[in-house]
Amino acid sequence: MRVAEIAERVGCDPESAYSKFADTREGTRFHNMQWPTFVTDENYRLFCKALADYANSEEGPQSNGRHELFLSVHELFEKGNEIGGAPKKRHYNLDKSFIGTDEANLMLLKAAHKGMTQQAIAAYLGCSRTAVQKRLSALADGVRFGDSYIKAEPTSRGGLKSTAHPIFLPLRLHEVYLMLSALGEFRAERSGGDPERVVADDLARRIYYQLSDYAKGGIEKALDERGVRLAGLRPDFDSSKGVDDSDRIVMYEKMGLNLKVGLVNGDVLVGCFAHHADLQKCVNAAEISKDGSYIVFKLLDGRYWAVDDSQVFSVVAASGN
């Protein structure tokens, strides 16, 4: 049986990520091989290299397409072992694939956002539950992604909960300039204690900190010419430590600032941050898991309300402060 026939059995239609690889010169060669020939030591090695070269090239799939390509090939090998007629079994698992450790952890974080069980995550990543447990343990302890540090919380279902949504954008210098310029103009319209200005400052700091000295010099000159001043931010840029959520909340508590907080479900809360210890005063305290990460608000009408911090998407200063 040819590889192409097995690919059809696992649902690799002409528009699939695998089929696009199979249309390349190298991909076509392997796609038309008989399965027993395909899984010999040499051809298996050459296939893995050709697939990685394609996946990591400019023509390769982007974002979720990379996961689709990996999973299609993983399923191709599992089905081939079942019906391909070769005495030797081969597998294409996460640790042997073109997916690197950081990328696999990002996939795991996306799965955490969906509330998947460990069994579902194992199917999603094409690996064993044991491999999932090891990665979950690492994320629970905290891992670094470039200049960012991410820690996820275990859930009662054996998975993870994370409010982090890692976005990695390899940008050209003019794109970095545009982003910092926009953030600079945005912060200039807000007072020093405005929550959105604090977030803008932190975003700009994290972008600026990753630049080379050469890039910093060129961008600062261009921003100065545009009338955007980063002088107020620069001291923060000299440190690799940003302002985390807990620091912001403490700052807002001390300021007694009234905030307008937007939630994912469309609700809006207006009030100020309260202490975690005030959870017992919350009208909805019974709905909040004490093991999770939550925020307590004192609303304008005097009631206390708690929300899971993963449900918060915007925090702005309320009018009348």
Descriptive overview:
The protein is of the alpha+beta class. 48% of the residues lie in helices and 12% in strands. It has 4 domains: 3-96, no CATH class; 101-161; 173-237, no CATH class; 257-317, SH3 type barrels. The chain has helices spanning 3-9, 17-22, 25-31, 35-38, 41-55, 64-83, 101-113, 118-125, 129-141, 173-188, 195-209, 213-226, 234-237, 245-255; strands at residues 143-145, 148-150, 153-154, 160-161, 259-263, 268-273, 294-299, 304-308, 312-317. The strands form 3 sheets. It has a 5-stranded antiparallel β-sheet. The longest helix has 20 residues, at 64-83. The model is unreliable at 231-243 (pLDDT under 50).
Helix/strand order? HHHHHHHHHEEEEHHHHHEEEEE
Average of pLDDT: 81
Q: Portion of residues in helices? A: 40-55%
- The Cα radius of gyration reads 25 Å
User: What is the makeup of the main sheet?
Assistant: 5 strands, antiparallel
Extended strand count:
9
Gross geometry: flat
Query: Given the helix and strand composition, which structural class is it?
Result: alpha+beta
